[in-house]
Amino acid sequence: MKRAIWIFWPSFIVGGVASVAFFLVLDPVDLRMVGPLELSRMAGYTLGFFFFWAVAAASSAFTCFLQRSPDEINR
Q1: Do 11 and 57 contact (CB within 8 A), yes or no?
Q2: Which is more confident, 66 or 34?
């Protein structure tokens, strides 16, 4: 449980900051050119936040994976 908190809490913060930075430059309505999805502005913000959160969580999980000690690996 402790590792899950170490992974998801910082990635939540990074996901929020990345969403703000990304959507300061682009409006979710402008992203309709990229794909065939017809999303509302709020849905674009939501999907963008969860995408950035997932990327940051994957990065944090990989960092926790690499920080394991030899004793943890060789159990």
Answers
A1: yes
A2: 66
What percent helix, strand, coil does the chain show, rounded to 5?
80, 0, 20
Q: What pTM did the predictor assign?
A: 0.80
Length, in residues, of the chain: 75
Helix/strand/coil for 48 = helix
pLDDT value at position 22? 93
| Helices marked H in 1-75 | 2-25, 41-66, 70-73
18-64 pLDDT, tens digit per residue, is: 999 999 998 887 777 666 667 788 888 998 899 999 999 999 999 98
Domains identified in the chain, total number: 1
Cα separation, 31 vs 18, whole angstroms: 16
Query: Which range marks the domain in which residue 32 is found?
Result: 2-73
Task: Give, rounded to a whole angstrom, the gap between the first and last alpha carbons of the chain.
Answer: 19
